[in-house]
């Protein structure tokens, strides 16, 4: 998701991600998010043009509507963004002075080291093999 996605677009994508493969009926989505149907339909059409949402026309309770699902690529993008948010550097008070040769460096940062160790541990739990690269 880029900076171009609005807050309501992100809410829609999160709701669709949470719904998983079953998707969400478009009419029900408006109630969940408190959005009027006209605005909501425009937003979903925009998300569909961006390739983030899939719409399938269906009959629901005797009326035509759409079943909405999140596109697989959007799920991957959302997961990457969530993982990036966890990197301690982005919330570090020393970010503006951190760098090679300075008093604060990534090589000496305990928060970054601990985060990397947890990431490696988590990765090793998720797979049976772990590839470690070193420039030493």
List the helices and strands and how they pair.
Elements: H1 7-19, E1 24-25, H2 26-33, H3 37-49, E2 53-60, E3 63-70, H4 72-85, H5 110-126
Summarize the entry for a quick read:
The protein is of the alpha+beta class and 136 residues long.
Note down, in words, how this protein is organized.
With 136 residues, this protein is an alpha+beta fold. It is built from 5 helices and 3 strands; from the N terminus they run αβααββαα. A hairpin with a 2-residue loop joins strand 2 and strand 3. The longest helix has 17 residues.
Task: Please supply descriptive tags for the structure shown above.
alpha+beta, 48% helix, Arc Repressor Mutant, subunit A, 136 residues, 3-stranded antiparallel sheet
The CATH topology label of the largest domain is: Arc Repressor Mutant, subunit A
SSE series? HEHHEEHH
- Report helical residue fraction: 40-55%
Q: How many distinct folded domains?
A: 2
Under the CATH scheme, which class of the largest domain? Mainly Alpha
Gross morphology: elongated
Helix- and strand-based class?
Answer: alpha+beta
Question: Which second-level CATH architecture of the largest domain applies?
Answer: Orthogonal Bundle
Largest sheet, strands/sense/barrel: 3 strands, antiparallel
CATH superfamily of the largest domain: Winged helix-like DNA-binding domain superfamily/Winged helix DNA-binding domain
CA distance, first residue to last residue: 36 Å
Number of strands: 3
Content of β-strand: 5-15%
Gyration radius from CA atoms, angstroms: 21 Å
Strands in their spatial order, largest beta sheet: 1-3-2
